[in-house]
Structures are given as structure tokens and as C-alpha cells.
Amino acid sequence: MLASLMQKEKADFKKIRIINIGGADPLASLSKDIDLTWIYYGWTGIQAEIRKQELNMIWLKDIDPALDYYTQVFITSEKMIREKPDTVRKVMNAVSKGYAFSVQNPAQAAEILIKHAPKSDPEIIRKSQLWLSLQYQADAPRWGEQKESVWKGYARWMYDNKLITKMIDPDKAYTNEFLPGK
After folding, report:
1. Measured distance CA(119)–CA(130) in Å, rounded
2. What is the structure's pLDDT at 85?
3. Helices 85-104 and 122-133 sit at what angle, rounded to 10 degrees?
4. Element (DSSP H or E) covering residue 92
5. Per-residue pLDDT tens for 101-130?
6. Could you tell me where in the chain the CATH 3.40.190.10 domains are found?
7. Which fold has domain 78-173?
8. Is 120 helix (H, G, I), strand (E, B) or coil?
9. Alpha-carbon distance 113 to 124, whole Å?
10. What 3-state class would DSSP assign to 158?
11. Which residues of the chain have pLDDT under 50?
């Protein structure tokens, strides 16, 4: 993916040396060992804000709107859907309630996480949850609802950049069928 992004900007991917930093702190590594890293803004970006560490960040969606794809997706098998659709529906109902609660009550949701993840940094959790609570549903009419155009656009981008060998059928890649209210 990085090579494809660099090619779009006419940059030479071969000049990059990939280093696996494992579980090392990417922000600390940026200040000494590495020049760039891929982060999840909802956690590492918030952590940088708290540390007052300036990031020269590029949002993927600013490079190409097709890169504004869904993250945090729930995956099951076609067999599970076929054989136990009620279980899938119940799981999605419970998950949906949790996300809806987090959207409506970000501070309280953060405190619940802090209680159950006592080794995590409470300040990061609180600020991350405030930011994430605005992202969980974003412009969707309800939490979890996805659009074919997003799946199709991202798949087309991956196919065009030779990251997948054949186009996916978006109708087979996702469903809104098991969301509450459907």
C-alpha cells in the first residue's frame, strides 16, 4: 500500500528501508530511529497531542477519497450467517448498543474502559474516546451502516494498484442485514 501511495506522488519506494519496530512506541521511534510510521490516529495521534509531539501527518483520504474506507469491521463466515443468523444478529445488537452508548456518553465509556484496563493510560483513553465518539457513526444514518460505494471505491483502488488480483463484489463483502432495526 505504501509503495502504491508513493508511486502516485512519483516517489521512489525503493529508497525506503522498512524496519519492523514491533511493539516499540512509534512516537518515541519517530524522534530517534525512524522517519515515518503508519498510525491509528484515534490512539497514537491522541497520544502525540498529549505529549505535545508535533506530527507531520498525511490523512489517507486526503491522498485519495477511495482511501476513506471502513475500519473496525466485524467479520464472520458465510457458514455462520447461513447456520446461525440469530447469533450473528444478537452479537451485532450487543455491539451496536455498546457503540451507541459510547457515542452518547464518551466520558462514561472511557471510565468503563479505564476500570477494565487499569494498565492503560487514563488520559489517552479519555481523550481518545472523546475523539472516537465523533467517528464511530460519522455521517452514517446509524452506527455500523455501510455503503456499497465505499467498499467499491476502496476495492477499485486496491485492484488498480495491484494490491488484489481481482475486483471484489461489494454485495458479497459486507451486509447491513444484521444491524438492529433491519
Report:
1. 20
2. 97
3. 100
4. helix 85-104
5. 999 999 999 999 999 999 999 999 999 999
6. 78-173
7. D-Maltodextrin-Binding Protein; domain 2 (3.40.190)
8. coil
9. 11
10. helix
11. none
